[in-house]
Design a protein that fits this description.
Elements (H helix, E strand, L loop, with lengths): L2 H6 L77 H9 L7 H11 L4 E4 L6 H13 L11 E4 L3 H17 L4 E4 L5 H10 L3 E4 L1 H9 L10 E5 L1 H6 L3 H9 L6 E6 L4 H10 L4 E4 L10 E7 L5 H9 L4 E5 L3 H13 L4 E4 L5 H13 L4 E4 L1 H4 L7 E6 L6 H8 L9 E7 L4 H10 L5 E4 L5 H7 L43 E2 L8 E2 L19
Parallel strand pairs: 1-6, 1-7, 2-4, 2-5, 3-4, 5-6, 8-13, 8-14, 9-11, 9-12, 10-11, 12-13
Antiparallel strand pairs: 15-16
Helix pairs in contact: 3-4, 4-5
Length: 529
């Protein structure tokens, strides 16, 4: 979260928190550390219901019925009153951050005191500072030894790791602490060099960290504080075996802070095994029932789907459009540019530099429409995203929650639109019910007034834009739906409608829409290590 977003939402309640893990008692008197890394095993998640299936019920875990933590947002405490040093509060003030968010109010005092913290909250509520500030406060005053970091933040994706480093580096510098980003897709030699010299805090994705440990460039035996950020997403990606191996390499008395938007069975296993007498803070229910977020379903004929998407993407303001596959994201962004919409793709098949450029262009406004896959959903933290569009309905309710969480962040308002064909209507209703959402449903054509009323849709310029941000489109495959060059045949949507391999895995997944019976492709996700 940027300081501007924090400042704008300082007077409004926000939601976010994540679970933590520990393995010994005596948290208030001593530090503890934990880590995670490694290559995830394939992880299959439930598919969306088919049309002939009964309405699903969301999986329940031991933390689903936690009482909601209430904080005083009318007269919130200052950061100093939460236990932070004046130097940190001064640095926050310089960045325009004066008032803590609810997740920070709820968790910082216990984290500063050395307790394990298990936090559940909606995305975009300020959790990076909720774990980052206590970590900085507790680690200052001593130096890291070569190859032995003292603080560890584990995250599921490169983009999220970069966001965390960007947010915490200026604050850590005020206390003479060093941070290092450790993630796949980035030069490993520089990461090894930094670790060999000694780094206080490492922000890492699991696979790359385990690789560096195997190369003897990193040793976790000095880690005092470990943070598991987006723990549920790491579970979805199959990282839990790696997480457990890394936590087992950290001192048993280390402090662990675990934050997540949902606390289902896999995350509960981590909590039970690795957290010692954790302070539990539940600031939001695991649903998308955010009061500042509107949910709509646009049902349209298959032949009208691309024209509808085009008009929505041509709107003013930042828009994120989610597709199911990498090919669908590339194809859709290319076709949007051909009709005059400034769009860029973001998915696991692009290089890190390409992804960085796409996000930078989206943030500075030179690109107004970001076309992303689920793998990228957790790494997109951009202010003022006012509309999220599910071009392809998500595979399950958790994906819906995290895609939708890219808007209405930190108390801001936003809208979420799911585009469905008539064949999708029933499975989409079931999925949204499982997500705790009661959307407004509309039967629309591309030029229906309600489309403009809800999204601000308008006709694109029709003037083709040059291909932006570089990078080649994945090679299309031959199928009945298109010719050998990937050009759609008559009656087909103008992007990615042929069977492709989903970014989450499985052959036969359609990037333009799910199968007619509402089934989803396989759910093995691209690894981001």
């Amino acid at each position: 979260m940027t300081s501007a977003a924090q400042s704008r939402a300082a007077s409004r309640p926000a939601r976010n928190s994540r679970p933590s893990s520990g393995v010994s008692a005596g948290h208030s008197a001593r530090n503890r550390g934990g880590q995670q890394s490694g290559r995830p095993a394939a992880n299959r998640t439930a598919r969306p219901p088919r049309a002939n299936r009964s309405t699903p019920t969301a999986a329940r875990g031991p933390f689903d019925d936690l009482p909601i933590t209430i904080v005083d947002t009318e007269n919130p405490p200052t950061f100093t009153e939460l236990g932070l040093a004046p130097q940190l509060t001064t640095a926050l003030s310089r960045a325009g951050i004066e008032t803590p968010f609810p997740v920070q109010i709820a968790t910082i005092p216990d984290a500063v005191a050395g307790r394990d913290v298990l936090g559940r909250a909606a995305t975009g509520a300020g959790k990076t500072l909720a774990f980052g500030l206590p970590m900085i406060a507790r680690l200052e005053g001593t130096d890291a030894r070569p190859r032995r970091p003292r603080g560890l933040v584990l995250v599921p994706t490169r983009e999220l790791a970069m966001q965390v480093v960007d947010a915490l580096t200026p604050l850590a510098n005020t206390r003479d602490l060093s941070l290092r980003l450790v993630a796949g897709g980035l030069p490993i030699a520089k990461q090894i060099s930094s670790l060999v010299k000694g780094v206080d805090i490492v922000v890492a994705t699991p696979g790359r960290l385990e690789d560096l440990i195997a190369r003897r460039a990193c040793d976790l035996s000095d880690v005092q504080i470990t943070v598991l950020d987006e723990a549920d997403h790491m579970a979805d990606l199959g990282f839990l075996p790696v997480v457990r191996r890394l936590l087992d390499q950290t001192p048993s008395g280390g402090q662990r802070l675990l934050f997540s938007a949902t606390l289902d069975g896999d995350v509960a296993t981590l909590v039970t095994k690795y957290l010692t007498d954790p302070v539990i803070k539940a600031l939001a229910l695991p649903t998308a029932a955010v009061t500042t977020m509107e949910h709509h379903v646009f049902t349209t004929d298959l032949g009208d789907k691309f024209p509808l998407i085009t008009r929505i993407a041509a709107r003013d303001g930042r828009t994120i459009l989610f597709t199911r596959t990498k090919y669908g994201a590339e194809r859709l962004s290319d076709n949007l540019r051909k009709v005059g919409v400034s769009a860029a793709p973001l998915h696991g098949g692009r290089t890190q530099s390409q992804r960085n450029r796409a996000l930078a262009a989206f943030k500075d406004g030179s690109v107004s429409a970001l076309v992303a896959t689920d793998v990228a959903a957790r790494g997109i933290h951009v202010d003022d995203v006012t509309l999220v569009v599910h071009v392809d309905p998500p595979a399950d309710e958790k994906d819906y929650l995290h895609r939708s969480g890219r808007t209405a962040r930190a108390g801001e308002s936003g809208r979420v639109v799911t585009i469905a064909t008539p064949a999708d209507e029933r499975p989409v209703r079931q999925l949204l019910k499982a997500a705790g959402v009661q959307p407004t449903e509309h039967r629309v054509s591309p030029e229906a007034p309600v489309v403009s009323d809800v999204t601000g849709a308008r006709s694109p310029s029709g003037v083709a834009l040059p291909k932006q941000l570089g990078g080649a489109t994945p090679a299309p495959t031959r199928s009945a739906g298109g010719d050998r060059h990937g050009r759609p045949q008559s009656g087909r949507p103008a992007y990615g409608s042929r069977p492709q391999r989903s970014e989450r895995g499985g052959r036969g997944a359609r990037s333009a829409r799910p199968s007619a019976d509402g089934g989803a492709p396989g759910t093995r996700r691209d690894r981001q290590m």
